[in-house]
Write a structure and sequence with these properties.
transmembrane, alpha+beta, G-protein coupled receptor, OR51/52/56-like, 312 residues, 4 strands, Olfact_rcpt, globular, single chain, Rhopdopsin 7-helix transmembrane proteins, 6% strand
């Protein structure tokens, strides 16, 4: 913790981040797992992006959305995990005041962007299955417009979270009991009123992630109804396979997120290290597995990856 004094009082310029207070002896082993997952996540997403970039047959809206999703995954990984590894390996626990709130901003903005991208991907699958004659709706221009809307919607909705947190007066302990600058972990160090901060985060998260999840579930209900009504077994299998990869990605995303939320709500009933670890893993496991799932389950991407490695 570093403080500087001026005419207006004491100003915080750094925070101290303590990841797992009771697990110092096992942090090095955990760091090996996290580093391996980081290498896997970056490598897999890089291969996927290069495959989509170089394979002309993948110049389609669905694969553009997948590329956007990979960029968001990589950004979240690089925002969180390198700092965690620096804490584990070199005890570099300090983080600047501005750096902490920049990390908070990126996490709070890019996570809902992933959710919104899932929604657009679900809409693409919905049109392909329920309204195949209207498939011309999903064009490159549609993806561009959707991406612009996603960026501006989430920037405007999530920017107040770090801004409100940064404006608080931090005069108590400056030790963040977390591996990352999560909003709640930081603002509870303030000696001011944080009810507005908590309320805004709750409303913004559930309005963004909650509405996306509801719409995704509705779209899959309509798709399931349409698939059941199909007479051809082969057509049914093909329709389900087009949604399988996307549904697996949603399960990765939602499962860890929901487990993290519920463990946080459990409070003292579970060790404090559990939600911290889940928060870190949520920035690693989906990014590491998402491109692998699409690479294994999507024939076009699999062929593109083979061609990429043969040409290199």
């Amino acid at each position: 913790m570093v403080l500087s004094s001026n005419n207006t009082g004491t100003q915080v310029i750094e925070f101290l981040m303590i990841c797992f207070p009771g697990m110092q002896d096992t942090q090095h082993w955990l760091s090996i797992i996290l580093a391996s997952l980081l290498v896997l996540a970056l490598g897999a997403n890089f291969v996927l992006l290069m495959t989509i970039w170089q394979e002309a047959s993948l110049y389609e809206p669905m694969y553009y959305l997948l590329a956007i999703f990979s960029v968001l995954d990589v950004t979240l990984c690089l925002t969180v995990i390198p700092k965690v590894l620096l804490i584990f390996w070199f005890n570099m626990t300090t983080i600047s005041f501005s750096g902490c709130f920049l990390q908070m901003f990126i996490m709070n903005t890019f996570l809902p962007m992933e959710s919104s991208t899932f929604l657009v991907m679900a809409y693409d699958r919905y049109v392909a299955i329920c309204h195949p004659l209207c498939s011309s709706i999903i064009t490159e221009q549609f993806v561009i417009n959707a991406a612009i809307f996603i960026v501006f919607q989430n920037l405007l909705a999530t920017l107040p979270t770090p801004v409100l947190a940064a404006r608080l007066n931090y005069c108590a302990s400056k030790v963040v009991e977390n591996c990352i600058c999560a909003n709640i972990s930081v603002i509870k160090l303030s000696c001011g009123d944080i009810h507005l901060n908590k309320l805004y985060q709750f409303v913004s998260v559930w309005c963004l992630l909650g509405s996306d999840l509801v719409l995704i579930l509705l779209s899959y209900c309509f798709m399931l109804k349409a698939v059941i009504s199909l007479q051809s077994g082969g057509t049914t299998t093909k329709a389900l396979s087009t949604c399988g990869s996307h549904l697996i990605l949603i399960l990765f995303f939602c499962t860890l997120l929901l487990v993290f939320i519920f463990t946080n709500k459990a409070g003292k009933k579970i060790p404090s290290e559990v939600p911290i670890l889940l928060n870190v893993l949520h920035h690693l496991i989906p990014p590491a597995l998402n491109p692998i799932v699409y690479g294994v389950r999507t024939q076009e991407i699999k062929q593109g990856i083979i061609k990429l490695f043969k040409s290199s």
